[in-house]
Predict the structure.
Amino acid sequence: MDILEKIITDKRQEIAFKKQLIPTFQLEQSVLFERETVSIINNLQNNEIGIIAEHKRRSPSKQVINHNLNVFDVAQGYEKAGVCGMSVLTDGKYFGGSLDDLLLAKSSCNLPLLRKEFIIDNYQILEAKAYGADVILLIAAILTQKEIKTLSEFAKSLQLEVLLEVHNEAELQKSVMPSLDMIGVNNRNLKTFEVSLETSKMLSTLIPNDFLKVSESGISNVEAIKELKPFGYQGFLIGENFMKTDDPGESAGYFINQFSL
């Protein structure tokens, strides 16, 4: 089994357990469930640089990135830096995150929040809404075309925006549908973990203009963004580059200031 298959096998067990623990009606009664969501798309369309900054403690490819930071401080730092939105990893086993991280981020900033998770079930979308997310991530590599349609339409019914992540042309071709808002190109090869901005460049012409384009992974300097802007990208997801520092907010602020120079 490759790493994605392992994660999904574990995720199915996790969801089954959670459904027994917290029924859907309980999620729907959450204080945050009826709130108006904040649009990350509006922020990205009206910002010159378009940073979505991530909170990520570790990953299967990099192991520990940073376990010493408080989500509250990171969220406030990102907001002060002027990012367009914040991505919060909520997977526990492989990334060291939790839904409580999402809740804490929501309580500490007014940024639109993306729940970064391996979503395979509508239950996780209800969780996202109940814990403060404004946007969900769907990963084409782990979903069929029918599943992408079902999950994205359900998210839209809850006023959540949808970012669909692809790694190659085959994933993109099966995924394009009206219930998506953004298409993110992950520059990391899932088999080798190698990163190349050429992936974003190559797929850019195949993404219809109806969708906002986001580039993910491997964006470690301002030059990378300047390189990708002519290909139509308006959003740039950056996690590790900020999280490996002692002060991600300060690091994000410095990065954004560099872009203006």
